[in-house]
Amino acid sequence: MSVDIKVKMSLEDFVLDVEFNAHETAVTAIFGASGCGKTTLLRVIAGLEKRAECVINIAGHCWQNQQQNKPTYQREIGYVSQVPCLFPHLSVKQNIEYGYQRVKSQQKWIPGEVIELLGVQHLIKRMPMQLSGGEKQRISIARALLTNPKLLLMDEPLSALDHQGKHELLALIASIHDELNLPIFYVSHSADEVAAIADHLILMADGQIIASGAVNQMLIRSDLPMFHADDARSVIIATVVDYEADYQLTHLQLGDEQIRVAGQSIPIGETVRLQILAKDVSLSMSHVTNSSILNILPVIVEQIIDEQKAAWLTVKLKLGESHILARITRKSADHLALKPGCHCFAQVKSVALLSSNV
Amino acid sequence: MLTELLSENDWLAFSVTLKLASLSTFILIVLGTPFAWWLSRTRSKIKPLIEAIIALPIVLPPTVLGFYLLILLSSQGGVGQVLSRLGVESIAFTFTGLVIGSVLYSLPFVVQPLQTAFSSISRQSLETAATLRASPLDCFFSVVIPQARMGFFTAIVLGFAHTVGEFGVVLMIGGNIPGETQVLSIAIYEHVEALEYTQAHLLSGSLLIVSFVMLLLIYATNRRKSILL
């Protein structure tokens, strides 16, 4: 069982024409520049765009094809929009329960549990206009979850939030996904968010899908724009093997190598997702021992892409069975005489632990 | 004391006016709500035409409207002929005719506040309700009406007050039948004609106070709302 989507719709500047299927429990990020049609795609799936021709099948139920077209209110979706829209005439509690009261089927959740999961207990007696942007978005997520959706659609849910708010809500969405195991379509133009929560990535431009695949694979494909961006990054999967209590460091196994990350939050044996920003990786030809950098890993240069003759370039490195990226200056690359096949050492200045239960 | 000054006809005029205004307002809200909703959402090319027609009673002398209605509703008029074929007697100079006249005359005062209130409800609000499983009708009652409640309040008060204050249309199509079509504004006119200034004062004064209180209510409520937001 999966989620099958096929959409065709003429927009002002281009034709939205996409076809894909997503796994039933995965987070699928729909990624692309502003105006590439990703929000419209979500709206079509929600049944909010009347002119679209499409076929939408969710876990064995047809929502739309040539013969039928269920109106939005009969589609079992949860929709979280960019700017949260709470009903101003209802209290926060009434907002949260608005969809819940209209769902007849058996509920996975009751309001109390969702209110607790989202940490909004202290807000429920207030009116929406008394809330901050982040609080409003939490309420709108709670409200959407309580309709017992078969598919959660999120349209840049963090875009209206400040840095701290983004971080907290991203962790929350990841934990919601862990708890609920429901498919999430997550529209975004932030590589940061995509790397943190998506399993699968669909890259869109001008209404078309230009590439799709597992997130860790997509981020290191040199034919895609993310690879060449200043915020290029790689995502790797590792296993927690040890905790060094004296220094409060968690040890993670990745093939033959160990990576150390500050802090302790995850039990030994769990698999986790790590993100390494390409600009946090520098290269040296020998193993530097007198360095403050903790993670110095032997790697093999696989690819050096230098098309633009710009100051910076991205190097794709093989680390055991995984890949990481390094963003270095072209001058350094020439100085080190880097070539594909070179053995060298990657000095990783920082590793971000993104989520457990991969 | 005061009550002794007013004749039985004056009291009848009070009750006719009240009945007329309540019934007209009720009909206006029932008819005006879907109409105003359509106007607030449509992109139809005929929207300006419809809006202009609805606004006509604001600028037109009531006698003009009354005159055409009289022609239309009398037994020789178009509507009158159809009605008489159906076995209904002429409705000119009846309470029914008066209600029809009032509804047309006060239409803009009900439709316009409703339309303004509906227009200020965002499309996102309606779409959000739909994604939360509310059918269009459910959404109308659970999202639109509560958010447009100030518009309804204004529409009801204006529709009622405007009907109470009407004179020209009533004079043309209702005539002056005590207990049937004689309303307060006509009764006042009658008293003045007969130089019964005390009675005219009493009736005018009460209309003045009622109208003022109703308008005060609207503005006070609007102010409270804007402070809250």
Describe this structure in words.
The complex is a heterodimer of chains A (358) and B (229). With 358 residues, chain A is an alpha+beta fold. Chain A has helices at 38-46, 92-100, 111-117, 133-145, 163-180, 191-197, 215-219, 225-228, 330-336, and strands at residues 2-10, 15-23, 27-31, 53-58, 61-64, 77-80, 151-155, 184-188, 200-205, 208-214, 233-244, 249-254, 257-262, 271-277, 281-284, 295-305, 312-319, 322-329, 343-348, 352-356. Helices cover 22% and strands 37% of the residues of chain A. In chain A, strands 6-7-8-3-9-10 form a six-stranded mixed beta sheet, with helices on both faces. In chain A, strands 13-12-11-14-20 form a five-stranded antiparallel beta sheet. The model of chain A has no long low-confidence stretch (mean pLDDT 89). With 229 residues, chain B is mainly alpha-helical. Chain B has one domain: Orthogonal Bundle (MetI-like fold). Chain B has twelve helices and no strands. Chain B has helices at 2-5, 8-41, 47-59, 62-73, 78-85, 95-119, 123-131, 136-147, 149-164, 168-173, 184-193, 197-228. In chain B, α2 packs antiparallel against α9, α3 (47-59) packs across α6 and α11 (184-193) runs antiparallel to α12. The model of chain B has no long low-confidence stretch (mean pLDDT 88). The interface between A and B is medium-sized, with 25 and 21 residues.
What is the highest CATH level, the class of chain B? Mainly Alpha
Structural class of chain A: alpha+beta
| C-alpha termini separation of chain A | 20 Å
Count of individual beta strands of chain A:
20
**Overall 3D geometry of chain B?**
globular
Query: Looking at the chains present, what oligomeric state does this protein adopt?
Result: heterodimer
**Which architecture name of chain B does CATH use?**
Orthogonal Bundle
Q: Sheet with the most strands of chain B?
A: none
Alpha-carbon Rg of chain A, integer? 22 Å
| Helix content range of chain B | over 70%
What is the alpha-carbon Rg of chain B in Å?
Answer: 20 Å
Give me the count of strands of chain B: 0
